[in-house]
Amino acid sequence: MIKNIPVSALIGLMFTGAYFFVAIAAPLIAPYGMAEIVGDVWEPPSPEHLLGTDNIGRDLLTRMIYGGRTTIFIAAAATLLSFLTGTSLGLLAAVLGGWADQALSRAVDLVMSIPTLILALVILAIVPVTVPILILVMGLLDATRPYRLSRSVAVDINVMDYVEAAKLRGEGRGWVIFREILPNALSPLVAEFGLRFIFMVLFISTLSFLGLGVQPPLADWGGIVKENKDGIVYGIGAALYPAVAIATLAISVNLVADWVLNRTTSLKGGRG
Amino acid sequence: MHPILKLVSQRLALGILLLLGASALIFGLTEALPGDAAQAVLGQSATAESLANLREEMGLNRPALTRYFEWLGGIFQGDLGQSLTNKLDISESIGKRLGNTLFLACVAAVVSVPLAIFLGLLAVRFRNRWPDKLISAVTLTTVSVPEFLIGYILIYFISVKLGWFSSLAIINSSMSLGQKLYAVALPAFVLTLVVLAQMMRMTRAAILNLMQSAYIETAELKGLSTFQVIARHAFPNAISPIVNVVMLNLAYLVVGVVVVEVVFVYPGMGQYLVDAVTKRDVPVVLACGVVFAAVYIGLNMVADIVSILANPRLRHPK
Amino acid sequence: MNEQLTHMSKQVTAGKLTRREFMGKAAALGVSAAMASTMFADAARAAGPVKGGTMKIGMLGGESTNTLDPAVAATQVPGMVLRLYGEQIVDVTAEGEIDYRLAESVEGSADAKTWNFKVRPGVEFQNGKTVTAQDFLRTVERHANEDSKSGALGVLKGIKSMKAEGDVFTVEMENPTADLPYLMADWHLVVQPDGGFDNPNAGIGTGPYIIEVDEPGVRHTFKKNPNYWDDSLGHVDEVEVLVINDATARMAALQSGQVHMVNSVDPKVASLLERAPNLEIKSVSGRAHYVFPMHTNTAPFDNNDLRLALKYAVNREEMVEKILRGFGSVGNDIPVNESYPLFDNTIEQRKYDPEKAAEHYKKSGHDGSPIVLYVSDAAFAGAVDAAQLFQQSAAAAGINLQIERTPSDGYWSEVWNNKPFCASYWSGRPVQDQMYTTAYLSSADWNDTRFNDPEFDKLLFEARGELNVEKRVELYSKMARIIRDKGGLIAPMFNDFVDGVSTQVQGYKNDPNGFLMYSWAPIKCWLDA
């Protein structure tokens, strides 16, 4: 099995795994307390502070580790929520057809026609910004994309002979969705899952950049970039570490997603 | 009626309904925001008296529904109304801003769309060899770095250190085209990097999907060169998904560039909308929101129609 | 070598040597760049202002929703625009004295109740009309009107009657008001033709520059007013104000030479920016301060022991060091400092004392539930960071602070003066009376600590009518002590105004009233040829 995984996907898997591990084990790994002030502002890297200190004198490595935990947790939860709502509604719309499909699809068109970022900014100004609400807002606003994808894939599958056959056999809707359509729609959905996860990481970073992210002293990577961004133009790298972290996480997840996609397209080819 | 005409008119009607829905949704949301334009304008210096006076003057004392339908009535007469906060004519302010936004979007699109498709074709031609992998890695990196950071890094190196391009992309009507292009060079570059990856990846994936078809094998067996096969036989049939993703990204170039506008101080629609939301300037928020929604719906319509035209099976329904 | 330098300086003064030539020659003589720069500036100042050129300013604090109406101006860009196209009756100088602008002289009666402002003769508005006492009257009327939405409305309370006779504008106050000329110096009170009643947004004033392009939130451009009455001001031909709200973009614009000056330099980058050639950081300590106001009538802040606990739990030195990077000074939980006239500087400085904080905290009997501090980036630069420092220093005293960050958008309407404990700032006022009247008098509109102390109110009115300086100092000292020990104000630091200025700009002089020489910079400075 391992033999068949290309090197790029292996690297992706390794990095993704490492990031998730650090996120879960953050309190055990981090050298200092998350909000603990241990030194002067923007100290250069030293043996005590491997990445130096941040804009108010906290250990940057510690901030990065806890920031990763926040970022990954929120992005993963929001992506899951987005996929669960998006795909279940999408599959349902495809199977039901008719006015239910129309109503759902037009509602999704409506939400998509307003820029997501602007919509999120407005909604987050109305409701208090807490982690569950962030996840809810990001997840639901993003659910429109998995909806469209799953619906379009499912519409194609829905007219396949084997689905017709299942319907003629008298199988219920649940059976058709979960036993016939879902397994065949899974591969593009999994590939999309990777991409959506990355968009979520970037989304939460952008929200934090605009000052709407998690509550301090908690921070996500985007928030750490924001806290330290003023140093960039003077060659202080504190803002670059979290950016590199976002980029490497994004790339490694995408490498895995690519591999899944390739595997499934070759499967498709094999089936002819 | 010709089926295509019928389809287009159906889409148009649906688009207008969607626009109405979007305006109602935006109005509802802005009404739900805490505070109002009067408080936002006076800010820290507000007193109970001055607030009441300003509310009266702005007409905020009337019920929300009345204000919405008045606005709607104005729209049908082609009147976007006046800004609550600075009394300027909204059509005029939006006109300028929209012009700027479209200019930047056009510059970015003219560079990024052909480049993305070319890179996509190149990646297919050299599939799984080093050019494919290199293109993949580079575009993945650019899409994974937050756009504000790309902006700051470019400002630091290109504008501050080297002094080649301006970090301020402020443009105005008195500038020549050349000056304008020079001013927007950096933001257009950042936007190109941001939208390139998705379009390139979709081109590559769509064409690769077709390369396994029997007719491509036939073409290959005819002895055509690989690039001819890709360009003449595979590409035309992959147009539909490619156009779809191109349109999505064009929409993004128009409606999603708030952050780039902030970083490069570009006087576009996004900044205007964010300011208006901050100041609870409802008519301006509505006008911007509807323009954005119209751009999005319009581009999607184009994508749909192009896919239908490009697909003989859809063009001549059973 | 000395002789040669003196000769070169003279050449500069005579306008025969440009900055670049001077610096080059000085370097050849082995003079350090910093010293040569100072010498050049001195020589150039001696030469007097160079006329002409376009001054470009990059500024924080403008939105696309701004107007030209002086009454509703609230942020820095509208403030700058007002300064360029308009003028008040009187203003305040950098030294804190009254600066006679459209009034040539001011006279008060012995009881400090009646004040006469004499109109400067022959000054014209930019529409060609001559300024009269009637314009003064109508302007103040519009701002003081009950229906007004003016930011100066609060300041103008207590006017009994006003009249305009000949070239004299007379204000009669209900109570003795020794500082009335300072109240008239409020920057909103720009004189407009007929007070701006017919069109407050016309942008017509008497200022040294005339508006050419007005694109709110983007840029404002101006050209010289050829009929301006004061020849000592207005050296450049054109002024261009560019709105650059993003801090990093603003600094980049200054560094790459696209603007000549910027306001609001983040203290964190100020020292780094100074390393760049051709730039100077100008910082001036003033009356602006960052605060955490508590509502003294709302639990748990209605308990003075809890308030004192929080006051002792702030590490002021650390905040000045980390948030202001030294561009500022520690505060003493009173809203005034030694920049004010009549200030008593013998009041003991409060220090960070976790033990005392814990003691008061225990005495207050607070149940240990987290105390919520509302904060936003809008409150002041670094407010969220300052709150986190506060949280850490309070934790050392066993006090559990919880930070609630809210969006910048809506902060002033929803949080400040609304939630019982939040972050905020004051830019200060020219005199103590005005600062206290604005926010600490029990009946003040902006009483953001809900402070209600009859003794304090009584002292304030007494000081207002008192003309003996020593007695006034004593009264103000008593008031300061009351606020410090009983009030709801935590004032950990007074922040400097920090501007970034290109070395091409000459004639820059510190003004503690505000950023960019209290917005005078484009008018009083000039550009090197």
Q: Can you describe what's shown?
A:
- The complex is a heterotrimer of chains A (272), B (318) and C (529).
- Chain A has 272 residues and is mostly helical.
- Chain A contains eleven helices and no strands.
- The longest helix of chain A is centred in the first third of the chain and has 37 residues, at 60-96.
- Chain A is elongated, with a radius of gyration of 22 Å.
- Mean pLDDT of chain A is 83; it is low at 266-272.
- The longest helix of chain B has 36 residues, at 90-125.
- Chain B is globular.
- Chain C has 529 residues and is an alpha+beta fold.
- Chain C has 18 helices and 21 strands.
- In chain C, the strands form six sheets. Chain C has a seven-stranded mixed beta sheet, with helices on both faces. In chain C, strands 4-5-7-6 form a four-stranded antiparallel beta sheet, with helices on one face.
- Chain C starts with a helix and ends with a strand.
- Classes of the chains: A mainly alpha (272), B mainly alpha (318), C alpha+beta (529).
- Chains in contact: A-B, A-C, B-C.
Summarize the structure.
Chain A is mainly alpha-helical and 272 residues long.
Oligomer: heterotrimer
Could you tell me the mean pLDDT of chain B? 83
Global morphology of chain B:
globular
Annotated CATH homologous superfamily of the largest domain in chain C: Dipeptide-binding Protein, Domain 3
Helix content of chain B: over 70%
Low-confidence stretches of chain C: none
Largest sheet of chain C: 7 strands, mixed
Which structural class do you get from the secondary structure elements of chain B? Answer: mainly alpha
Radius of gyration of chain B (Å): 24 Å
Helix content of chain C: 25-40%
The dominant shape of chain C is globular
Helix and strand content put the structural class of chain C at alpha+beta
Q: How do the strands and helices of this protein lay out in sequence?
A:
The complex is a heterotrimer of chains A (272), B (318) and C (529).
Chain A: H1 7-24, H2 26-29, H3 60-96, H4 98-113, H5 116-126, H6 131-142, H7 144-158, H8 161-169, H9 173-209, H10 221-228, H11 240-271
Chain B: H1 3-32, H2 37-42, H3 48-58, H4 64-76, H5 90-125, H6 130-144, H7 147-161, H8 177-183, H9 185-211, H10 214-221, H11 226-255, H12 258-264, H13 269-278, H14 282-310, H15 312-315
Chain C: H1 2-13, H2 19-28, H3 33-47, E1 54-59, H4 76-85, E2 90-92, E3 98-100, E4 103-108, E5 114-119, H5 133-144, E6 159-165, E7 168-173, H6 180-184, E8 209-215, E9 219-224, E10 238-243, H7 247-255, E11 261-262, H8 267-274, E12 279-284, E13 289-293, H9 304-312, H10 316-322, E14 328-330, H11 354-364, E15 371-375, H12 383-395, E16 401-405, H13 411-415, E17 424-426, H14 432-439, H15 454-465, H16 469-486, E18 489-495, E19 497-502, E20 505-506, H17 515-518, H18 521-524, E21 526-527
Parallel strand pairs in C: 1-10, 1-11, 15-16
Antiparallel strand pairs in C: 2-3, 4-5, 5-7, 6-7, 8-9, 9-10, 11-19, 12-19, 13-17, 13-18, 14-18, 20-21
Helix pairs in contact in C: 1-3, 2-3, 9-11, 15-16
